[in-house]
Automatic annotation (TrEMBL):
Residues 5-216 form the Tetrapyrrole methylase domain. It holds the Pfam family TP_methylase. NCBIfam families: cobA_cysG_Cterm, PRK06136.1. Belongs to the precorrin methyltransferase family. PANTHER family: S-ADENOSYL-L-METHIONINE-DEPENDENT UROPORPHYRINOGEN III METHYLTRANSFERASE, CHLOROPLASTIC, SIROHEME SYNTHASE-RELATED. It comes from Vulcanibacillus modesticaldus. This is Uroporphyrinogen-III C-methyltransferase.
Length: 503
């Protein structure tokens, strides 16, 4: 068996978007991903489905695996022929013990690459509004470990020199020793009034920052109950925080938002949440699949030239329609006699991207609004094609039939429940780590309730805000015993996000 390869990758300081492109490539290549506590778990989504994921996280007083065991794990998996990606928080060369891991690989003649990451020593302070250098304050910087190897007989830190040698000192992994750090600096000449910031879980929605001086920072940290992981910044640059803090001022900062849309559609909503400083947690309770019986759909496509109207009620309906045209080798020009209606702007946009101009787009983005917009244009006897979900509401087709139109309603796609990461989500609810849930359709509500049917939703969702894209979805939620706190005024994803940010 040929020997594999090991990638030693810096995962960045916490914000999953701060990993490098090369780091993502290494995750995608991996047969085995070995990750620690400070590597954001969402980075695992880049891994192959077949990849084995092994957690080796370390707490200050509790290690899942000791370093020697981690080293051996890298060797064993590589010798099995696997491509191994070792994900380490921050930059692996900054107190990340990457040198030790690389030395072991050299001894075993295992090929490896070291991929740098953004170190928390730089990223965490700037997310707190503190540039670690500034020409008006300092042009020098020291990065120091706050947690040396406990087996060493004496410290490698020359406190006498480091205390006054640079304008800014950043301590990593030092919050448990902050009193000792404070005493060492003051006793070796650092001004007791020097500004200090301590930032916990920097670059994430859980970021908390306390500011003081060497004189009082221990008391500030104790009162705020700041614990590991935390970054300590010492120097006059801390004064810039009041003016430059930006991350903590974002509208959704501090909030994790559950996104229940289908995996294929979640990215738009997730991106908007991230832009506003929140952290989207994807829990796709819906999976979009082709219809189990497409006989009626196939027949409708064969008769495409006989329709006066084709009405699309969702982006999924548009995508499935064009997939069906391709499957049946049907030219879109066959529907040249038909007028096109769309229920919302996103659906209309996707149609326009396909080269079709929408004739009717209602002001109210639901079936009732579309009916109002079509009122003066419908004539008895007209044929209407309505490609939609298998579980869609019947109000649109029934009202059209009442007006004397011939409605061909086909299942363009089916929605199935999909709750692969259910246990992880339940655990997050129990730990109070989710603040908002978003529902973008009645299906997402029904499937969410079904997925968690073995749990007490009243207890699980205590303190959690529920946000709905519109009144139909809200009504479904209320029928199922969920209390909706936020309903979008405009029944679109941007409208939903806007409603959330106003709370």
């Amino acid at each position: 068996m040929s020997v594999g390869k090991v990638f030693l990758v810096g995962a960045g300081p916490g914000d999953p978007k701060l990993i490098t492109l090369k780091g993502i490539e290494a995750i995608k290549k991996a047969d085995v991903v070995i990750y620690d506590r400070l590597a954001h778990p969402s980075l695992l989504k880049y891994a192959k489905k077949s990849a084995k994921k092994i957690y080796v996280g370390k707490l200050p007083n509790k290690h899942t695996l000791k370093q020697d065991e981690i080293n051996q794990l890298l060797v064993d998996k590589a010798l099995e022929g696997s491509i191994v990606t070792r994900l380490k928080g921050g930059d692996p060369s900054v107190f990340g013990r990457v040198g030790e891991e690389a030395q072991i690989l050299v001894k075993q003649q295992i090929p490896f690459e070291i991929i740098p990451g953004i170190t928390s020593a730089i990223a965490v302070p700037i997310y707190a509004g503190i540039p670690i250098t500034h020409r008006d304050f300092t042009s020098s910087l020291a990065i120091v470990t706050g947690h040396e190897d406990p087996s060493k007989n004496e410290s490698n830190i020359n406190w006498e020199k480091i205390s006054t040698a640079t304008g800014t000192i950043v301590f990593l992994m030092g919050v448990s020793n902050i009193n000792l750090i404070r005493e060492k600096l003051i006793n070796n000449g650092r001004d007791p009034n020097t500004p200090v910031a301590v930032i916990q879980w920097g670059t994430t929605v859980e970021q908390r920052t306390v500011v003081g001086t060497l004189n009082n920072i221990v008391q500030e940290v104790e009162e705020a109950k700041i614990t590991s992981p935390a970054t300590i910044v010492i120097g006059d640059v801390v004064k810039l925080r009041e003016q430059l803090q930006w991350f903590e001022k974002k509208p959704l900062f501090g909030k994790r938002v559950l996104v229940t849309r289908a995996r294929s559609q979640a990215s738009e909503l997730s991106a908007m949440i991230e832009e506003l400083g929140g952290e989207p947690i994807e829990f796709p309770v819906i999976k979009i699949v082709p219809p189990s019986d497409s006989t009626k759909y196939d027949l409708a496509i064969n008769q495409l030239d006989t329709f006066d109207w084709v009405i699309f009620t969702s982006v999924n309906g548009v995508n499935s329609f064009f997939d069906k045209l391709k499957e049946k080798k049907t030219d879109i020009r066959k529907m040249s006699n038909a007028r096109i209606a769309a229920i919302g702007p996103k659906t209309a946009k996707v149609l326009e991207e396909k080269g079709l101009i929408v004739d009717v787009l209602p002001q109210e983005f639901r079936a009732e609004g579309l009916l109002d917009s079509l009122e003066d244009q419908l004539k008895a006897g007209q044929r209407v094609l309505l490609p939609r979900a298998d579980i869609a509401r019947k109000v649109l087709s029934e009202k059209l039939k009442d007006k004397g139109l011939e409605v061909i309603e086909v299942d363009a796609y089916e929605t199935k429940i999909d709750a692969e990461n259910k246990n992880e989500i339940i655990d997050m609810f129990k730990k109070g780590k989710i603040q908002i849930i978003t529902f973008t359709s009645s299906s997402t509500v029904k499937n969410f309730v079904e997925a968690l049917k073995d749990e007490s939703l009243e207890e699980l969702l205590q303190g959690v805000k529920l946000a709905s894209i519109g009144p139909i979805t809200s009504k479904t939620a209320e029928k199922l015993g969920l209390q909706i706190d936020i309903t979008a005024a405009e029944y679109t994803i941007p409208g939903l996000v806007d409603a959330i940010r106003r709370v």
